Model the fold of this input.
Amino acid sequence: MLEHMLCEMCGSDGTLTRTIIEGVTMSVCQSCTQYGKIINTPRVETLKKRIHTPKIPESTEKVASDIGTILKTTREKRNMTQKEFAGILAAKESLIHKIETDQATPDIPTAKKWEKIIGKKLVIETETNGEIFMKDNTKKGTGLTIGDMMKN
Ligand SMILES: [Zn+2]
Done:
């Protein structure tokens, strides 16, 4: 059947391709495909769709900004020196010192490990899409205008 078909554009025979030309699906020869859009390329479409799929908002973890204070108060409650405390956390004394004085922040896996050891929350979850922030800023009754916030 196919070999007897002729190009619907120019009437020559050859390998015909299903092509949309000005909104009409036609079987045309290779040289006539340039006038329209070839249908049989679904892979390109699939790829484009995947690229443009919006990312699902995910929550990310962050080391608590007051981790230095948390470590210091925990350590002081236990009457431990930085060296002793570093020992139970399997960390360097210098690192504990830097964290307590806000000069350093441990990475998330380290902070998580310490959470278990001292039983305090050291890693907090934040939303990447910033929704939490929006809600706080639009909250009514705070009495703060944007102008007030600028002054601070
Ligand atoms: Zn043709």
Observations:
- The CA atoms of residues 8 and 41 lie 20 Å apart.
